[in-house]
């Protein structure tokens, strides 16, 4: 086997490459006065891309990889990980004569391992049919062997059938948990049409609650639903009498191979919006959002001053109760702890304290709470029933109640 130097997976090159920079390996052949037998990134790329694909046994799982000339890689696994294939990007870089860097964004399919995940391979040798490496973080052996396109397709079909069998057997439980709530969106505009929440009682009677805005009125309506799992490709969730904005939706389909939901009406698509995803946004990349006082439910109409969900850490709901003489404006921050429950689809806000901003002019929190519309607004936000939160196109973030007609939106 040819002596190798090192290949490491590094996100840095991917970022540069994805920003439009020239593929770095195109310019590396003549980089410096390096020895003839050094490992060149271009050689590694040729090796990765000229065979049908690669497989690797690691942590009790067989992984499969297909690399393309344009910097894309598809990774999959055998039936040990019942997750669909991951399509991502890879890039190559080098450090002197002894280090060559190969990046798979997020590790591809390896991200689903419970432990010993790797983003970096340290390659110690290769031939036309094998790459010998160890993981950079955990130091475990990671040997890639070349496979044909036919072998890859056979592995893909075995995996597809395994996913179908599992999802069909677990369909009812999955519909009660992972798929129990989400959004219906306009297929052409991506705008919000309705929120759905499925439930099943002890006698196995299913219902689906549809929540939608009719003008400024938030309406919740329950419909009877029956589930048929006799088909080998999909489960059919038949809904009795459902219309969304005047358009009939007679059924949802749960596809076993992809794990997705779709509708029988092409006008709508299903968005499996998770409250945990919203929570990650709220606790990490959240930017201050201003409550749109002109587009809010009637019960909360009449907010006199601007309200913000700010980007402080911890987060605050900022309320200005008004002017207190001599042009002094004072602001009250109701400090928030936020949690999420994917089973209910709700985000839960808890008021954990008061943060006075620009000083305090008396019992400012008491002043806010003494104004009925502000007190109602805060009671809605801090309800133990939680709230559903979702983005509507690129302009607004909606906050709606799962049980009442209260709602408001914020500007993005």
Tell me about this structure.
The chain is of the alpha+beta class and 412 residues long. It folds into three domains: 2-161, Lipocalin (Beta Barrel); 171-272; 276-411, Pilot protein MxiM (Lipocalin). It has helices at residues 11-18, 41-49, 149-169, 171-176, 275-283, 364-370, 372-381; strands at 2-3, 6-8, 53-58, 61-67, 72-77, 86-95, 99-104, 121-126, 130-135, 141-147, 181-186, 192-200, 206-214, 217-228, 234-239, 243-244, 247-248, 251-255, 261-263, 268-271, 289-296, 307-309, 316-323, 329-341, 346-357, 388-392, 396-400, 407-411. The protein has a ten-stranded mixed beta sheet. Strands 19-18-15-14-13-12-11-20 form an eight-stranded antiparallel beta sheet. The protein has an eight-stranded antiparallel beta sheet with strand order 25-24-23-22-21-28-27-26. A hairpin with a 5-residue loop joins strand 18 (251-255) and strand 19.
What are the key terms here?
Lipocalin, ten-stranded mixed sheet, 412 residues, eight-stranded antiparallel sheet, alpha+beta, single chain, 3 domains
In short:
The protein has 412 residues and is an alpha+beta fold.
Number of helices: 7
Strand content: 35-45%
- Major β-sheet strand ordering: 1-8-9-10-3-4-5-6-7-2
**Strand pairing plus helix content: what structural class?**
alpha+beta
Tell me what the CATH architecture of the largest domain is: Beta Barrel
Kindly provide the radius of gyration, computed on alpha-carbon positions and rounded to a whole number of angstroms. Answer: 27 Å
How would a textbook summarize the main sheet? 10 strands, mixed
- List low-confidence stretches: 1-32
Percent helix among the residues? 10-25%
The domain tally reads 3
**CATH class placement of the largest domain:** Mainly Beta
The CATH topology label of the largest domain is: Lipocalin
- Count all strands and give the number: 28
Q: Based on CA inertia axes, which overall geometry fits?
A: globular
The termini sit apart by 57 Å
Organism: Bacteroides finegoldii
Pfam family, one: DUF4302
Protein name: DUF4302 domain-containing protein
Signal peptide: 1-18
